[in-house]
Amino acid sequence: MGQGEEVKTRDEPKVEIQEKGEIFFFYRPKVDKEEAHSPDDVQRMYIVMRPESGERPVEEKQSSDSGKEGEKQSSDSGKDGEEKSYVSGKEGDKDGDKGDTSKKDGTQGGHGEEEVNIEKQPLLRFAVMGKKSLPDPSKRGRPFWGYIELVTTKIDDVKAALKEEEYDTATRGHRHKPAARALAEGVYRILRHQSGRQNHTHLIYKLEFPVLDAAGISGPQESPQESLNIDREASFLIQIKNPERQPSGGSQFRGLPNKRKSAFPAGLQGQFGQKKFVPADPPDLLNYEGCEFLLIAASDDIEEELGLELTIECDDEKCESDLLKMFGEAAPAKPLLSGTWE
Predict the structure, then answer these.
(1) CA 106 to chain centre
(2) 132-to-99, 228, 283, 306, 307 alpha-carbon distances in Å
(3) Cα separation, 223 vs 154, whole angstroms
(4) Which of 67, 81, 73 lies closest to 148 in space, CA to CA?
(5) Would you say 259 and 32 are in contact if contact means Cβ atoms under 8 Å apart?
(6) Residues of the chain above pLDDT 90, percent
(7) Helix, strand, coil tally for the chain in percent (to 5)
(8) Closest CA to 56 of 5, 18, 113
(9) Residues 70, 64 contacting (CB under 8 angstroms)
């Protein structure tokens, strides 16, 4: 599939592409459920970004011996038992499995720094959405919170995070965590948008899979993509949360425990000053596990909003899915290929 192309259709507004790449969406059914048939059956929604080029071919990322990436490197297992819910407060899960406190999770957020050439080496960001969906891009509303769960240069690490798992807990006995389902894939951009005297950043994407049929509709009316607000294309403002600022008492985004938050190097932390949130500029901020972000719906028509049109390499059933090439055996693909629940 590749990273696609972008075409500027008018001079205004002023936008600058910071990063280009591929984007993949997944959902995981709730623990001990074999399938999901509606959003009520969904335990997690994941976004995986693979940057492939940008303003700079070399990006800064966390040290490979930190966070979950470091755990996987040292133990080569990544089997923590229960998939923890690190979300607290209003953004937390209100139902389903909430994690097992009998297993102490010692994972810390990403820290340190090293360089990776995204044009020559895979770089994968595995993000979790707190609300288990994207914001509806056609509606302006409250921000949706998410965080980076895993950063790695190894495709097998992401495959391990997607696979099913059997495990035992002290409080709930034997549990089955079903495999994540491949939901959608496409191309994305992170871009800088100049508006007046201020700059902000957008995450925009356009889907290639599921493939549109001749009628322009993929799957049934209540497809998993529609139910989880995965439109054919969308634009979101993206903001990064300052890990050194504590939430106020009435904040709806209490976020991760302190030990799970990212510890940015001085150069990146300096982007925040005393601000609670800053644009994703540079996108390197997303290359740290425990990085918390907000997505704010901006538009479901990228060209109308930004004067930019994303093009994909193919839009018919003969296309080959990069998601399946990379993660196929780890994640059942019925939602991706047919636009139906599984």
Answers:
(1) 23
(2) 16, 7, 23, 27, 30
(3) 31
(4) 67
(5) no
(6) 68
(7) 15, 35, 50
(8) 18
(9) yes
DSSP symbol at 259 = G
User: Residue 22 corresponds to which tokens in the numbers above?
Assistant: 């591929």
The two structure tokens encoding residue 279: 């644009």
Q: Is 141 exposed, middle or buried (0-12, 13-18, 19+ CB in 10 A)?
A: exposed
Q: Is 279 helix (H, G, I), strand (E, B) or coil?
A: strand
Per-residue pLDDT reduced to its tens digit, 208-232: 999 875 334 454 458 999 999 999 9
Residues comprising the chain, all counted: 342
d(CA 248, CA 180): 34
Query: Is the per-residue pLDDT at 104 higher than 60?
Result: no
The number of CA neighbours under 13 Å toward the Cβ of 289 is 26
Residue 317's CB: how many other CB atoms inside 10 A?
9
Rounded Cα–Cα distance for residues 239 and 143 (Å) = 10
- The pair of structure tokens assigned to 300 is 């479901």
pLDDT tens profile 129-159: 999 999 998 888 789 999 999 999 999 999 9
Q: Any alpha helices (H) in 255-321, and if so which ranges?
A: 266-269, 302-306
